[in-house]
Amino acid sequence: MLKRIIRLIYLVVGAMVGFYYLPLLWDIAGWQINPSLLVFMDIAIGAIIFWLLSLLFVNPTIKVIHRVEHDLTSKSPLYVFFGALLTIFGLVLAVLISIPLWRTRIPVVNNLLPILLMVAFSYYGFKIGTSRLDDWKKLADARRNKENNGKGEVIKQQDTNYHHYKILDTNILIDGRIYDLVKTGFLEGTLLVPNFVLYELQYIADSGESIKRVRGRRGLDILNKLRKEKIVPIEMYDGDFEDIPEVDSKLIALAKKVDGVIVTDDYNLNKVIQFQNVDVLNINNLAKSLRPRVIPGETLKVVVVKKGTERQQGVAYLDDGTMVVVEDGRYFMNKPIDVEVTSALQTDAGRMIFARPLHSKKGINEQNPDGGKAKDKKDSKK
User: Mean pLDDT throughout 286-306?
Assistant: First the structure.
């Protein structure tokens, strides 16, 4: 059915081209033909030529149509709306410009040039409408806020501290904890995933190294889970910053453009972002702040899992991964013991807790491996 419609369109276009342009060809060639017969001949020749062309180009035309349909259906409704709106505006502007051109009697100027203007203006209208979505959103929000304020509603003071877009970088998707954080409902607004981050994930997933391949695929799986479960709105950013080579720099430029905040767990990127005066949400800092606080004198129950480096120390770990250094802990290897916190130290790598056993009295044999033999020797001397 689609092929028949396309061939019919080719046929109609060919008849129109023959009706308008073949008489010019006959005049140039100097042929004198009956005007009534000439009209039917022009229409027939143009229709036949374009029908033959349709036999060659009908399949490529169908492929182009399907591709356009796929691209449009994969875009957001806002993308399609502003693209269509600015396309119509471009066509109207081209028609207004073409009105004086149609009144001229110059063959190319009065018929071909208006068509070129319509094509050019509609194309640029569509590009402007779809490539500046963020600006249109800001304009619409500003107009809406102005109308609301005119109605006497309270001005939203939190707008200066609120960022609608939370931009995800590659590391945060590979890490996977963003999914659990989103499920808790503590992140509000819209998650924004740029295409260049998606391409970097795909590159890592196609890596020759198995470890990188697993990390890349995990990032893609997390992204698919976020889109599938629709816990929070998630959008893809189609634009790119071709003059910026590094992905991290592109993220900073995007955050400045859309007034967003970058969500990451990369320590170095976090420092660079702060230097660029861009807001950042670091999951590692969030995890540190949520760890339970301990104070000197508090008791903990731990299991010493390995030896320390000094003073017969032993090392244990809390459930959140915090390291606990236990004095004389090597004498309680792989045993649950109660310890008393003596001090805590916060470092860039994390937090360390220093403690000592509540029952620090060890058995004689544990204090001195030769203690039993020494006692026997003393008794024998006596």
Answer: 80
Crossing angle of helices 283-290 and 177-184, rounded to 10°: 60
Neighbours of 329 (CB within 10 A): 27
Q: What is the pLDDT of residue 20?
A: 75
Check if the beta carbon of residue 339 is closer than 8 Å to that of residue 356.
yes
| Contact by Cβ (8 Å): 264, 284 | no
Question: Distance (Å, rounded) from C-alpha 70 to C-alpha 66?
Answer: 6
Angle between helices 210-229 and 195-205 (to 10 degrees): 140
Query: Considering the entire predicted model, what is its pTM?
Result: 0.44
> What does the block give as tokens for 210?
């198995």
Backbone angles phi and psi of 256, in degrees to 5: -70, -35
Distance of alpha carbon 83 from alpha carbon 77, whole angstroms: 10
Give me 222's structure tokens.
Answer: 């997390």
CATH number of the structural domain 159-289: 3.40.50.1010
Span(s) in the chain for CATH 3.40.50.1010: 159-289
Quote the CA–CA distance of 18 and 41 in Å, as a whole number. Answer: 9
Question: pLDDT category, 182, cuts 50, 70, 90?
Answer: confident
pLDDT tens digits, one per residue of 264-279: 887 777 777 777 778 8
Q: Do the beta carbons of residue 264 and residue 169 sit within 8 Å?
A: yes
* CATH code matching the domain that covers 294-366, chosen among 3.40.50.10490, 3.30.300.20, 2.40.50.140, 1.20.80.10: 2.40.50.140
- In the block, residue with structure tokens 């001397």: 381
- List, for residues 358-371, the tens digit of each pLDDT value: 875 444 344 444 44
Please enumerate in sequence order all residues whose Cβ is within 8 A of that of 225, keeping only pairs 6 or more positions apart, or say none.
179
Residue 111 in tokens? 């018929």
In sequence order, what are the residues at sequence separation of 6 or more whose Cβ sits closer than 8 angstroms to the Cβ of residue 53? 10, 14
| Half-sphere exposure of residue 265: CA atoms within 13 angstroms, side-chain side | 16
The pLDDT score that the predictor gives to residue 149 is 47
Query: Residue 255's CB: how many other CB atoms inside 10 A?
Result: 22
Q: Residue 169: how many CB atoms within 10 A of its CB?
A: 25
